[in-house]
Write the structure tokens for this entry.
Amino acid sequence: MRGTMLLVAAAVALPSSLTAQDDVIFSAMSAAPLSISYSASIMTWGDWTVVREGSNGWTCLPDRSDTPANDPWCVDETWLGFIKALFSGSEPSYTTFGTAYMLMGDTPVSNTDPAATEKTNDADWVEGLGAHLMMLVPDKNAIRDISTDPHNGGPWVMWPDTPYFHVMIPIASYSK
């Protein structure tokens, strides 16, 4: 929460002449604690253009304009490869554990179909998802005992029967 307050304080102190690039940077940085996003690379969605070079191995992406919610991401190198595979429709390949932040929350999403853009069914559809972490685990057997129910009140496996499986970890104590 302190990091978010510092980011808000910095935004208040900025001149009103922010550029579109400044907006992208501010949005992307809101995805993770400042201890990570401050030195992260900033990249745009889809064309993967680097807006700002970073120095800590993290990459933050701004809110996506094609989704209904505020959903910026901040990802480590493993996750960056994963989301590029997801967005290109190819199968991800990784051998190391990966971490991603979405502290502003997420857009409504299917828990079983990574390609779904509209509500599937109530048991499967996740709405109102607040701040959370996401973890990639190379060995699917290591997470076989984690729930796949997104409404269980704790961590769950999203997209469990796809190559895009990952663990979602809500951060209930985090407030925007």
About this structure: The two ends are 7 Å apart (CA to CA).
